[in-house]
Structures are given as structure tokens and as C-alpha cells.
């Protein structure tokens, strides 16, 4: 478990600019009442953002997530996280940069159906 905590800390320190922008909109319960965590370990993975109460994970994907091997890796990761009871929402860096309000609406809508 300590290994995951250490990795989480490193990832928080080296977050992408898209993750930083989304985090500014999610932190301190800014999206309704939901408490989000960033770079949080779940099972064998560290997820970008999660609300434990809402059982929702948000993954911010860059261009590296478009190769066949990465898509396969993301599929396996999604299966494991869904088996833990979470809904996974994937958004692109471009979505965060160009349509942050739309991303936040997608997240809010996903939480309403929990």
C-alpha cells in the first residue's frame, strides 16, 4: 500500500495542465456537494480523480491513450475499476481545455444517476 501512496504523491506533483485545470473546478466540493480526490489509489491503479461517495472515477486522457495497446490497457483497467463498483468517465485533455463546462456537466449528470 505504501508503494501506491508514494506513486500517488509523485503523480500529484507532476499532474498535467489539463488535470490541474479540472482539479481547480472539482476541489473543495465546488461541484455540488461532491468531495473529489486526485491521484487516488484504487485496487492496483491510481486514478486521476474520484469521488468515493459517488462511486465515480474521472480519467483525463491525452494523446497517448489512442494507440491500440493503450486502448487495450485502458479497457482492462476500466474492467477492474468497474468490478470495484465505480463508474468510469473518460474525458480528453482537449475537452478539458476547450469545453470545461461541458466536462463538468457530464460529471454532474453521471453523479445524478448513481
UniProtKB/TrEMBL annotation:
Residues 4-111 form the DUF559 domain. The keyword DNA-binding does not apply. Gene3D superfamilies: VSR Endonuclease. Keywords: Endonuclease, Hydrolase, Nuclease. It holds the Pfam family DUF559. GO terms for molecular function: endonuclease activity. The keyword Hydrolase applies. Signal peptide: none annotated. This is Endonuclease domain-containing protein.
Amino acid at each position: 500500500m505504501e508503494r501506491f501512496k508514494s506513486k500517488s504523491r509523485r503523480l500529484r506533483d507532476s499532474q498535467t495542465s489539463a488535470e490541474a485545470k479540472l482539479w481547480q473546478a472539482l476541489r473543495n466540493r465546488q461541484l455540488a456537494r461532491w468531495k473529489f480526490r486526485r491521484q487516488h489509489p484504487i485496487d492496483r491503479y491510481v486514478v486521476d480523480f474520484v469521488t468515493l461517495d459517488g462511486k465515480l472515477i474521472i480519467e483525463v486522457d491525452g494523446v497517448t491513450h489512442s494507440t491500440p495497446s493503450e486502448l487495450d490497457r485502458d479497457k482492462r483497467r476500466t474492467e477492474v475499476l468497474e468490478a470495484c463498483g465505480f463508474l468510469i468517465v473518460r474525458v480528453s485533455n482537449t475537452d478539458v481545455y476547450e469545453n470545461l463546462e461541458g466536462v463538468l456537466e457530464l460529471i454532474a449528470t453521471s453523479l445524478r444517476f448513481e
